[in-house]
Amino acid sequence: MSRELARGSGETPPGAHAAGAPASGGAAHSQHPDAAWRALLERASAPYRAAGRFAWHFARGKLGRDPVFRGMLQRGDLSGRKRVLDIGCGQGLLASLLQACADAAAQGRWPAGWPEAPRAAQYTGIELMARDVARAQAATAALALAPRFVCADMRQAELPDCDLVVILDVLHYVDHAAQAALLARVRTALGARGRLLLRVGDMDDARGFAASQWVDRLVTTVRGHRVPPTWGRSVAQWRELLQHLGFAVQALPMSRGTPFANVLLLADATASHGDAA
Ligand SMILES: C[S@@+](CC[C@H](N)C(=O)[O-])C[C@H]1O[C@@H](n2cnc3c(N)ncnc32)[C@H](O)[C@@H]1O
Which of 173, 199, 212, 226 best tests ligand 1's pocket when mutated (most atoms within 8 Å of CB)? Predict the structure, then answer.
């Protein structure tokens, strides 16, 4: 059964702006995108000091080295989506990044050349590991976004209605039947115009997939968790499953600068799936 552990206090730190507030507090800035990204990275990592040295170093390393986070902002993958569900959220980095984006936009520090800044108004993170949930809560409790973290197994956790579901590097931890069952529930939670961002390893790229698995095991061990078995699919198989569930799918390679076989699947709900309009 789901165990709701934590909810942010909603307290707004000095200078912070409510997530979801209009970005009209400042015009888009001509700041160079690299500088803008570095500032976002610093701002999104800073709250993790409250969760200890490991949490802070992990946040900076992950946000700084994993191309998916900056990529999602530059392409506008998160733009215009108010209710965000992050499944397998780890220590909740996406919540902190969303807050940093809202703050930057409100203060006129959003790069003019990027799509509209994300303006999440609600964030729910589901995570199996209590230690990660504790770190997420310690870091993000004061954010205006007031992220909610649920310590639960995604296979049983209740999924709230949402506009955007993000699942990064998580589904391979459960077997194929459980993957399909969860994605069907995600499709229902998203409704007619929702979007799923799903990052997976492409099993057709044997060498890259093996590299991802190796690093995954290492990071799992360093974070103090037991290394579980994993279940992969090729990108073609992921695409077929998602299309069958009522998504239109684009596949974006997400391994530039890394030895991995990661692919980000942008899956938009198709109206033909029988949702209410
Ligand atoms: C590789 S980490 C990715 C974390 C986060 N999505 C990110 O990109 O920073 C995978 C996460 O999925 C979580 N996880 C694995 N199996 C899970 C399950 N059955 N239910 C919920 N979370 C799970 C792990 O505990 C871990 O935090």
Answer: 173
| CATH architecture designation of domain 33-273 | 3-Layer(aba) Sandwich (3.40)
- Weakest-pLDDT range from 181-185, 214-218, 233-237, 249-253: 214-218
- What pLDDT, on a 0 to 100 scale, did the predictor assign at position 187? 97
Contact between residue 2 and residue 83 where contact means Cβ atoms under 8 Å apart:
no
Q: Could you tell me which residues come within 8 angstroms of residue 240 by beta carbon, excluding any fewer than 6 positions away?
A: none
pTM, to two decimals: 0.87
Q: Is the CB of 121 under 6 A from ligand 1?
A: no
User: Whole-angstrom Cα distance, residue 60 to residue 58?
Assistant: 6
- Spans of all domains in the chain: 33-273
Pocket test for ligand 1, best of 62, 97, 170 (most atoms within 8 A of CB): 170
Ligand 1, atom 10: closest residue by C-alpha: 170
